TrEMBL record:
SMART domains: CRA, CTLH, LisH
Organism: Arachis hypogaea
Cross-referenced PANTHER family: RAN BINDING PROTEIN 9-RELATED
Protein name: CTLH domain-containing protein
Domain of life, per lineage: Eukaryota
Pfam families reported in the protein's UniProt record: CTLH, LisH
Domain CTLH, residue spans: 78-135
Record InterPro entries: CRA_dom (IPR013144), CTLH/CRA (IPR024964), CTLH_C (IPR006595), LisH (IPR006594), Ubq-SigPath_Reg (IPR050618)
Length: 243
């Protein structure tokens, strides 16, 4: 027999031995363990409210507040203002977004030069998108170039953006992703996070972090036991362990 055959056989034996050494937990045992964990309804409600507030679902947050009696940790009226800023960036109206941010809190952009540069970069991208070449070059030279001289990363981002003007067909150029909607969403998300931070609120909702922790915990436990998994997070249905 070949050496490869012996190696495969040895590997198979190792896998079987590892599988056999795992503790098998039945659905009944697992559900009992889960039922022993007590979670207060108030804590779950706060988790839901945190998600609605952070993601900007103001109407849903208002209804949830009325139905559950859960108080948000910020004024819900500020969510509408924050979402107006986010929507302006997502629609390419960066000048309007900057004005709205300053109306909310002028210190946000004054104390965050990186965010202000990214907004100005997005404004330059919109000029290029609309074919305003001369205006784009003038804006890059007057507004962005001085900031690029002070920060190397800003200069690199500026050079990449201005390079869009060198291509007639930007859809096939290596930096065409700057004109994708995903770039607007990235900038809008950065602005949203900055506004939340200025309001002493977490910039990311807690729920996705907890789901990531669940996935990590299951992977870690897989090394030691076979147990019912939650494979589809949207349904949270336990699936029997593969033994």
């Amino acid at each position: 027999m070949s050496l490869r055959w012996h190696a495969n056989a040895f590997f198979f034996e190792l896998v079987c031995a590892k599988a056999a050494s795992k503790k098998v937990i039945t659905r009944e045992e697992w559900e009992k363990k889960l039922n022993d964990v007590k979670i207060r309804k108030e804590d779950m409600n706060k988790l839901v409210m945190n998600f609605l507030v952070t993601e900007g679902y103001v109407e849903a947050a208002e209804k949830f507040q009325m139905e559950s009696g859960t108080e948000p940790d910020i004024d819900l009226a500020t969510i509408t203002d924050r979402m107006a800023v986010k929507k302006a960036v997502q629609s390419g109206n960066v000048e309007d977004a900057i004005e709205k941010v300053n109306d909310l809190n002028p210190e946000i952009l004054d104390t965050n030069p990186q965010l202000f540069f990214h907004l100005q970069q997005q404004r330059l991208i919109e000029l290029i998108r609309n074919g305003k070449v001369e205006e784009a070059l003038e804006f890059a030279q007057e507004e962005l170039a001085p900031r690029g001289e002070e920060n190397q990363s800003f200069l690199e981002d500026l050079e990449r953006t201005v390079a869009l003007l060198a291509f007639e067909d930007v859809s096939n150029c290596p930096i065409g992703e700057l004109l994708d909607i995903s770039q607007r969403l990235k900038t809008a998300s950065e602005v949203n996070a900055a506004i939340l931070t200025s309001q002493s609120h977490e910039k990311d909702p807690k729920l996705p972090s907890l789901l990531k922790m669940l996935i990590w915990a299951q992977k870690e436990l897989d090394e030691k036991a076979a147990y019912p998994h939650i494979n589809d997070l949207s349904k949270a249905v336990l699936e029997d362990p593969a033994v």
